[in-house]
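Q: Please design a sequence for this.
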């Protein structure tokens, strides 16, 4: 069983925002604003699809979103 990709946007101690995969010690991306980090996380997940979790300054989850894959290999609609 494979689990969907997941990325978390959270605030860093240096004041920037990071995009990180759960369990990872390194950030996938670092941005100066939360909006930039969310955009980068969506871009990362658009290739494979997955879950985006956005945390506020206090670390509490404030939003979650499911990102669809960038392309559907199926030829039929639906």
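A: Design:
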């Amino acid at each position: 069983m494979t689990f969907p990709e997941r990325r978390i946007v959270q605030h860093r101690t240096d004041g920037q925002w990071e995009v990180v995969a759960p369990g990872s010690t390194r950030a996938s991306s670092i941005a100066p604003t939360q909006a930039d980090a969310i955009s980068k996380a969506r871009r990362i997940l658009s290739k494979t699809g997955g879950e985006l979790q956005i945390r506020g300054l206090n670390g509490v989850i404030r939003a979650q979103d499911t990102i669809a894959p960038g392309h559907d290999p199926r030829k039929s609609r639906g």
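Q: Thanks. Anything notable?
A: The radius of gyration is 14 Å. Residues 5-67 form one domain.
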